[in-house]
Specification:
This protein is mainly β. The chain has one domain: Rieske Iron-sulfur Protein. Helix content is about 0%, strand content about 30%. The chain has no helices and 8 strands. The strands form 3 sheets. It has a 3-stranded antiparallel β-sheet, with no helix packed on it. It has a 3-stranded antiparallel β-sheet with strand order 2-3-4, with no helix packed on it. The structure holds FE2/S2 (inorganic) cluster.
């Protein structure tokens, strides 16, 4: 693969990416285990990302597969497999560790891009 297929998805390069401090949702709105996708558009640029809620922890990732840059999810916005053991790319079947975004089935390739998020004392998930 040549170049960087994810360049358009780098948070700092995308004007549609929400700023730190942007509230996303209440943690209790997310099933555990579960996931939820988000999308913003500014001036024709789109930023897509998702949250994973697993064992009371919340993780954020840019919704772009490092294989070819496609969004990971298909209909239904289910980013996790049924066992909640992997984040799945529905395009060609890549799998990632939910807690850190590393590849499971394609070694030595960059994993998911982390989207920094935090749960504050009000139990709301924010962009960090
Ligand atoms: S685009 Fe995700 S596995 Fe190919």
């Amino acid at each position: 693969m040549s170049g960087d297929p994810l360049a358009a998805f780098r948070i700092e390069m995308n004007p549609a990416a929400p700023l730190a401090g942007t509230p996303l949702c209440r943690r209790d709105e997310l099933p555990d285990p579960g996931s939820r996708g988000f999308s913003w558009e500014v001036g024709g640029q789109v930023f897509k990302a998702f949250l994973i809620h697993l064992k009371s922890q919340v993780f954020g990732y840019v919704d772009a597969c490092p294989h070819a840059g496609w969004p990971l999810v298909g209909a239904g916005q289910q980013y996790l497999n049924s066992e909640a053991s992997a984040v799945i790319c529905r395009v060609h079947g890549a799998r990632f560790i939910p807690e850190n975004g590393h590849w499971i089935n394609v070694p030595d390739v960059e994993g998911l891009i982390t989207w920094p998020v935090e749960v504050r004392s009000d139990d709301i998930v924010y962009v960090a």
